[in-house]
Amino acid sequence: MTVRGPLHAFHIADADDDPQKAKAWSSQAKRRGLVICVTALFLVLIVTLGVVLDGVAGVLTRGERLTAPVTGLTPILFIAVFLAMRLDRNLFLASRPAFALPDEPYDERQQGLVNMATRRGLKLAMIVLVLLTAIGVSPLPPAYMLAAGLGGIAFVMSGPQMILAWALRPSDFDFDGMADDEDSHA
Question: Among positive and negative, which fits the CA dihedral 16, 10, 121, 148?
Fold first, then answer.
């Protein structure tokens, strides 16, 4: 049985997926800060990848030498990719109420959360599509267009989880059912 919930590529269930660890993400401010960090990281990755790919394309197609920005940004690109993997793990924990791991129940409430995030994620995908179209008709070098396209795909795939992390209530993280009725309806 696989993980049930929003689209989440490459998730391998382990001990870090314990719902008790996800309770640390019940703070709405903490989750929204994470979403802002993930969005900023996507932008950094797109620009950095564009510069690196453009430099590599110059070496391969025009016989240019590697420039200082390319050699300087390449380690930053690898660090950003590592950071993205860590933030993706945190994003999973921040949207954990909508997920069910193997041998966990998956109820209508979770399915409703996933449906809401998917609907809003489609709107986000349309915005990204418009932005990518604008980038595609711009005079930017192809390496930047490729970087924007790859970043756009990753952003759209992460969209439902970011929407969940932004929209979940603190009471959604009450995995034990111990919250007061007033707190769960607030």
Answer: positive
Q: Tell me the C-alpha distance between 91 and 138, whole Å.
A: 33
d(C-alpha 128, C-alpha 136), whole Å: 12
The C-alpha atoms of residue 165 and residue 160 are separated, in whole angstroms, by: 9
Q: Minimal CA–CA distance to 129: which of 143, 148, 116?
A: 148
What size, in residues, is the chain? 186
For residue 29, with 0-12 CB atoms within 10 Å meaning exposed, 13-18 middle and 19 or more buried, which class applies?
A: exposed
Query: pLDDT at position 186, please?
Result: 41
Distance between first and last Cα of the chain? 34
How far, in Å, CA of 52 to CA of 33, rounded? 28
How do the residues of the chain divide into helix, strand and coil, expressed in percent and rounded to 5?
Answer: 75, 0, 25
Given a contact cutoff of 8 angstroms between Cβ atoms, the answer to whether 113 and 97 are in contact is yes
Which tens digit of pLDDT belongs to each residue from 99-124? 877 777 888 988 999 999 999 999 99
Amino acid at 30: K
pTM: 0.82
State the Cα–Cα distance between residues 64 and 101, nearest whole angstrom: 50
Residue 39: closest CA among 127, 140, 138, 139:
127
